[in-house]
Please model this.
Amino acid sequence: MLTLLFDGIAYGMLLFILAVGLAVTMGLMNFINLAHGAFAMVGGYITILLMQRQGVPFLVCLPLAFAGAAALGAVLERTLYRRLYHKPHLDQVLFSIGLTFMAVASVDYFVGSTQQILQLPLWLKGRTEWGEGAWMLGMGHYRLFIIAVCAALTVALQYVLARTRFGSRLRASVDDQRVAAGLGINVNVVFLSTFAVGSGLAGLGGALGADVLGMDPTFPLKFMIYFLIVVAVGGTSSITGPLLAALMLGIADVAGKYYIPKLGAFIVYSLMIAILVWRPQGLFVRQGGKA
Amino acid sequence: MNVAGRWRWWELLLWALAFAAPFGLAGHALIINEIAIVALFALSLDLILGYTGIVSLGHAAFFGMGAYSAALFAKLVMPDPLVGLAVGIAAATALGAVCSVTILRGTDLTRLMVTLGVGLILMELANKLDWLTGGADGLQGVVMGPLLGRFAFDLSGQVAAVYSVTVLLVLFVLARRLVQSPFGATLKAIRDNRLRAMAIGIPVGQRLVVVYTVAAGAAGAAGALLAQTTGFASLDLFEFHRSADVMLVLVIGGVGWLYGGIAGAVVFKLMQDALSSITPQYWTFWIGLFLVVLVSVGRERLVRPWTWWRP
Amino acid sequence: MSNLQATPDTVLSAQGLVMRFGGITATNDVTLHLRKGARHALIGPNGAGKTTLINLLTGVLQPTAGSIVLDGQDITHLAPHQRVRRGMVRTFQINQLFDSLTPLETLTMVVSQHRGLGGSWWQPLGARAEVNQRCQALLAQFHLSEVQRQPTRVLAYGKRRLLEIAIALACEPRVLLLDEPVAGVPAGEREELLQTVAALPADVSILLIEHDMDLVFSFARRMTVLVNGAVLTEGDPDQIAVDPQVKAVYLGQEGSDHG
Model:
């Protein structure tokens, strides 16, 4: 059971890193971006292809995945997304679905539709076990690595948000764009960099998670609902909300699939619907804040 | 007051052509049938999207529900098409009534998610109840009896096409009356300004429940028609792709004027048919590109070609 | 000072209303009585809680404490649309209109809804003669006849403001809450609006929020002054005009609130 908890936490932290960019851009630009998973896919494929075809070590691929996805995000934000911020949500949904379709089809065409296998480096393939019996905690080194990296990223994100000038500009822009612009904050730059970093994090998450989640062209569509759950349940006014939501989701999914495999994802979806109907603004929104 | 109730000349012409098509274009009866079904599906979405402004990404849930109910009814109870159609509509309507409470509150995002979630749940259910639904293989060998006891479904698809076009017309007329009535006007009010709609005494929740349920029933009709005319129902009816595609069809034709679903269906299906020789991944790519361009250029400009050259 | 007791012809009664948001008390023990045919103005500096009070009365907000009675019935826990059914209607400070509908369609819809036809789905909108007559009468009353078939989004601001009030009247209110009706209306269109407000039916009880003192003093027969969420004083316009406390509140702000 402890192992399950451990696996669930690893899964949840991964989901958090994958989805945090979406939460922030949703809160900042009020833009429903269903193509977020495509950036994760880009990161995952960059990693896999570099490792398979160029023999680049795994650890080196991670920052490259981040950079690649971030660059793509920056370009798309500047050229396409920026013009759509004030459009109705329907248009944003259609647009991002379109982008996703294009990404999915392109990857399918260029790389093929089979699931890619990521060869983890040897030092990540081990497993450490503490305790015994029902209380045994089995920690796969790879999952341990994921937790460590994601935890470090979370701390870094929180630091940036709370302690840096950029962070306060970002928070100001989230709270009220017009006032922030009136204060001299260059909102365009804030948007661009936030979107790029968010996409980069998604790419990094895709690279980290390629082994655990499976990487194939349908990745963005398969996992879109999970990212959206993290954002909708966690709210967009903080990053601790999505973190908690992601952890809950990770644990619920892993436990659900283990204890009641027949019902699998059914439980997650039903829970999500129940939560969103009960608390439409998300579970972790501060009262009086803009959700 | 105005010509709200009266049919324009081009509408009568359009429907006359629609009925003539299965006979005049007998070789194309199959695609006419498909167009009618997609048009009905898109029409049902228009009731929600066009007239209340709610973005639903799970509308395929009702489509699939109608299809499976009609197929199972034909296999297990009786193969009469019209009764099966009624069963499909009833099942989808019931599901719609249940799900309608989920879209009453929340932001655009939460509603989107909830509708998406419902679609996914239905798909999981259909997958897991494989003893009933045939699981991933789908429900095969659905053989329909003759329509009205006389017109057997033939391989050319003529009877099927006339059947589908008729059902489309009937439901279209009902939808038309609905949106042009005071009820429909209150829906538009809810779409334009929900706050004010509440402030003038419109029971917003009730209205949304009713229209969502009706839309679900219409989608169920489309699904039932599909199962009956193709003799087959499969899990992909519940897939996200279906919900996204029907939204695209509606957007192509224009949201909020009822004929949008029909116009979009014609364009979409003909395009799909023409490009069907190319492998499926290309189709997805071009659809995606189309959506990106459509939104970037502006949806209203699509139906007004003379604005394309304006900066 | 003032008579805060309900009288037999009181139509709307708010008793001890309190609204707290976290640490802020937006409405502090407000009591207000509206008689039949009242022309009652609610004035006060910005942020005094006037719109909050309207939101409480109409049910958009639930009070932390206190009660609201309409025609002898306690409506404190009724949903907004149910209060409208019982005859309490409001207008909004910022126009809340239906941009894709024309004034004709809007008013026909409102009248139909109010006459219980809102759920009717078979007949086209505007099929009923008596509904149409009522609409044309309203359109004429609010100087909207010439623009009745134009979509609301293209109308001039003054016309939109008139439509805003026309919608409320179409609900046949017994109690009408007007939230700054002339706010932002250009000088050329104010007269039309002021005349229309002055000509509202005598048996409708009206609570008016306004900053425009000319309108307030020409319109109101009774006034309540709200400051920091609490009632400062209530009385006839003559009393209020010379009340030293009121003067202090307004003139203390450099007289910026005149008109």
